[in-house]
Task: structure prediction
Amino acid sequence: MTRTSHLGACPLDCPDTCVWQLTVEDGRAVEIRGDRDHPFTRGALCGKVNRYLDAVNGPDRLTFPLLRAGPKGVGSASFRRATWDEAIARVASGLRATIDRDGPEAILPYYFAGTMGHVQGWTMGPRLFAHLGASRLRTTICTAAAKAALRSLYGASVGFEPESIVEARLILLWGANLVSTNLHQWPFVQEARARGAHVVTIDPLRTDTAARSDEHIAPLPGTDAALALGLMRHVLDAGAADRAWLDAHTVGWPELADRLADWPVERAAAECGLDVEVVRRLGERVATTRPTAVRVGLGLQRHHGAGQAIRAICALPLVTGDFRHPGGGALCMTSGHYVVNEGAVVRPDGMSAPAARSINMSRLAAALTGEADPPITSLVVFNANPAATAPGQSRLREGLLREDLFTAVLEQRWTDTCDYADVVLPATMQPEHLDLHSSYGHHYTTLNLPVTRAPGEALPNTEIFRRIAAAMGLDHPRLRDTDEDLARQLLNGAPVSFEELRERTYARTTGVAVGSAPYAQGGFPTPDGRARLLDPALNRHGVDPLVGYTPPAEAADPTNAAAAVRRLAERFPLVLIAPAGRFFMNSTFASLPWHLRKMGEPRVHLHPDDAAARGLVDGSAVRVRNDRGSFLAAVAVDDATRPGVAFTYKAYWARLSPGRATVNAVTAVRDTDLGGGPTFHDTRVEVEAVIG
Result:
């Protein structure tokens, strides 16, 4: 028996991008733990990834290609085993038929963060489809609104150095449930707390992080910008605005100061459903405590006014001048410091990439049911499970069931989306292929090398796309690049080479040093180095160019809302949000027995007042409904939420859920104000008992 140890990267959609250590026996991974020497991982993995080998070694892995031989939407019983040559030929002929009949833009590649690796996730597949002239996918479903807001405000997705949060004396965890979704940032917060920092979680729910903080403030969903404006107004009234820094390093402060005249703390508190003294007390802390760090989560951008919310929250430390100080400022994502240029690798010099329309992935349900013109007639899905994760689930199912839609799915196990495929191709998992990983939560880049055998006939995504290209008669040499070629291209111009990463696995690849204040003297990645509190470019998007507040489309408090929202609230009085669960990672683990046991059955959490008003008790079987659809769940009576706000955890699979529907049966196909992101948390429902 040969027993070896190997470092690699966790591939999942998480800001922590952990480095793990795998123990391998005779080509099979048998143990996994966090790398003790990595500055951010520090020897720990989250609970879900501690059981990652359940997924790698699970008996449900797909191990050979499958072709549909029966009706769509039924499941694996409609499929038969095929050879790779047969399956690849079927994909090639399906794509060719679409091109010949409808043109290349009728092909849509649909992919996202089933792996965050640049090689397996974001290069060879997009390169092939760009070369074909297929529709280009706008990858909006997670961070689009935040990225658009940060580009507008700071010039890119940048902020304070995450390890330096230990220097902060006030930490606002704004919509950030670190204990569940950014676990490795939490020890740095704890260290700051041990040094005397006060930690405030701002979240509509009493999350695991909120329960561990010094203070929890629960605004109404979608009102974060109003709270930020009220806090800025208090800072201004207290004489604590850093006018010298604002004058030197921002654009639009006089205009914002004028706007703040309309946002006394009384108005902000009313809009957010908070006690005035809660807002005033927090405003006083912000006004008097340097440095203050604002760690911004991604869940709060899932409502119509998301772009303005991120802009307003991240403007707060500009007003206080907190970027002067190590550990001060705001941080939503570090991805603006990426050294990897995916665009140049997807569309390399000398390789044709015809201009093509773009399709918003968050609008897939609409695109497949009439919104796209010309219609999409070929769909290739990889690193994604849209039947479980995209909004408008009922409408999406209608589109996926179209007999004129050819669908190929690259997958590791049978998902909801596989039910609707014509071809299912078995893909490798992280220990079985090469990949390169940056992070959106720290500043290290990691190389992952293959160290175990793939099960059966499974192949890396990259190799599958190389074979599809060859079968289609495409002979450009860039479509034959190896995974190592792609990794080298991605690292072109980076401060670390492929050889160095192969030797030491990871490296810090940014000039932002731990303990530094990278924007103390401005220098934001905007043309003039100034942060933009006023951005005239937003006018062309129909968005107020000045930092402000856009109310949610459905979730607004009906007492302060437009007539249409008041009428909707009469029929559907509960605001429903769908946060991430601690033991799911999007839909990745939602079919695995251990993870399902830890998460439990789908439940809708109601405040005791809301449950009593409906005659419901803990465990009651209910239907959660609105005009878009419904799903079944059990009630959890829970004061972790406030009256009028319900929540249920996202990412359950429909085929494993009661009634074969999930929360996305009630979510809308609707765009955020900036970026075209989805509005999962901007939903009104009613909850009613299921009788019998």
